[in-house]
């Protein structure tokens, strides 16, 4: 028989409280709430069968709950999924986030991909069960109303991959900061700054994508004396494995040719950052979209 009563829990976080709208509707989380939608391409999505005593008990949804005060939505979603389902942060990578903002309360759905296999564990009383559900079978379950409303749009984007390919010579060379005196050092500093941006993600609208925020993978192409630059694990923003990363390609010859080769080998949405008109024409013919150097340097300046 399903328990319809919450367990006694004298220790609560300040965020664990109801927020009520003007029309009497209640929403859990004084500082908003967040949940984690884990997608494993081989097994489907990780869903939680909610305990009978919980809000919309008996339905299926994603692990999540109230955010702590001052807690980032991503951190809140990862923490809650670990507490409720044992989701390990080193087995997932960020893809995108969708925010339902009612003004007085918000819920952030954080979508991640499982990049290493793991088995969920029922680790708190809010779950009756946890299961990997094939994508095509999700709608056959009695879903939490909020998740049911958002699922069709989320499902449509689960397999989308976004990569930002950076013409490092062009972007670094767009700023008169003396970079030519130490090309290798300037490229290394730039790549390290890029790690911070990869950690923070990018507003979806600036990429022409749906939802609120995306975490692209970054490929920095370097040439000539700048070759050898590598991401710095100690750079600002480096840290949790779940954040998207930065890789570096050393061009054997022309940087432009190397970028064209990289773009040709990628799938999904590709954005090339360069102000070189000829290169932009070449990659756009391959299906990539382009942004000028200032598009990226402005975002890096706001990340520092």
Q: Can you tell me the overall shape?
A: elongated
Radius of gyration: 22 Å
Share of residues in helices: 25-40%
Spans of 5+ residues with little confidence (pLDDT < 50)? Answer: 1-6, 235-242
First-last Cα distance: 54 Å
Strand proportion, as a percent range, falls in 25-35%
Question: What class would the helix/strand composition place it in?
Answer: alpha/beta
Count of DSSP E strands? 16
Order of secondary-structure elements: EEEEEEHEEEHEHHEHEEEHEHEH
Question: Please, how many helices?
Answer: 8
Largest sheet: 9 strands, mixed
Mean pLDDT: 88
Structure description:
With 304 residues, this protein is of the alpha/beta class. Helix content is 27%, strand content 27%. Strands 3, 4, 5, 6, 7, 8, 9, 11 and 12 form a 9-stranded mixed beta sheet that branches. The protein is elongated, with a radius of gyration of 22 Å.
Secondary structure layout:
Layout: E1 18-20, E2 26-28, E3 33-40, E4 44-50, E5 60-61, E6 64-66, H1 73-85, E7 92-101, E8 106-114, E9 127-133, H2 145-157, E10 162-167, H3 168-172, H4 183-200, E11 202-203, H5 204-207, E12 213-214, E13 217-222, E14 246-250, H6 255-264, E15 269-273, H7 277-285, E16 289-291, H8 293-303
Parallel strand pairs: 3-8, 10-13, 10-15, 13-14, 15-16
Antiparallel strand pairs: 1-2, 3-4, 3-6, 4-5, 4-9, 7-8, 7-12, 11-12
């Amino acid at each position: 028989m399903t328990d319809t009563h919450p367990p006694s829990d004298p220790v609560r976080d300040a965020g664990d409280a109801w927020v009520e709208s003007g029309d009497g509707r209640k929403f859990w989380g004084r500082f908003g709430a967040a949940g984690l939608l884990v997608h494993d391409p081989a097994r489907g999505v990780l869903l939680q069968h909610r305990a009978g005593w919980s809000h919309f008990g008996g339905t299926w949804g994603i692990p999540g709950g109230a955010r702590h005060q001052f807690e980032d939505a991503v951190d809140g979603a990862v923490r809650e999924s670990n507490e409720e389902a044992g989701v390990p942060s080193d087995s997932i990578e960020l893809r995108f986030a969708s925010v339902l903002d009612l003004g007085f309360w918000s819920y952030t759905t954080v979508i991640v991909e499982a990049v290493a296999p793991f088995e969920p564990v029922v680790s708190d009383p809010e779950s009756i069960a946890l299961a990997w559900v094939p994508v095509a079978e999700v709608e056959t379950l009695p879903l939490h109303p909020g998740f049911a409303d958002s699922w069709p749009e989320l499902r449509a984007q689960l397999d989308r991959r976004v990569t930002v390919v950076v013409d490092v010579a062009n972007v670094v060379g767009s700023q008169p900061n003396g970079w030519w005196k130490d090309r290798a050092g300037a490229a290394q500093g730039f790549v390290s700054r890029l790690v911070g941006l990869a950690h923070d993600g990018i507003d979806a609208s600036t990429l022409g994508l749906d939802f609120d925020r995306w975490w692209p993978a970054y490929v920095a192409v370097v040439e000539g004396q700048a070759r050898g630059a590598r991401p710095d694990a100690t750079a600002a923003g480096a840290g949790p494995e779940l954040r998207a990363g930065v890789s570096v390609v050393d061009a054997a010859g022309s940087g432009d040719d190397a970028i064209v080769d990289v773009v040709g080998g990628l799938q999904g949405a590709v954005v090339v950052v360069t102000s070189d008109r000829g290169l932009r024409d070449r990659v756009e013919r391959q299906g990539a979209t382009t942004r000028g150097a200032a598009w990226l340097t402005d975002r890096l300046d706001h990340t520092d």
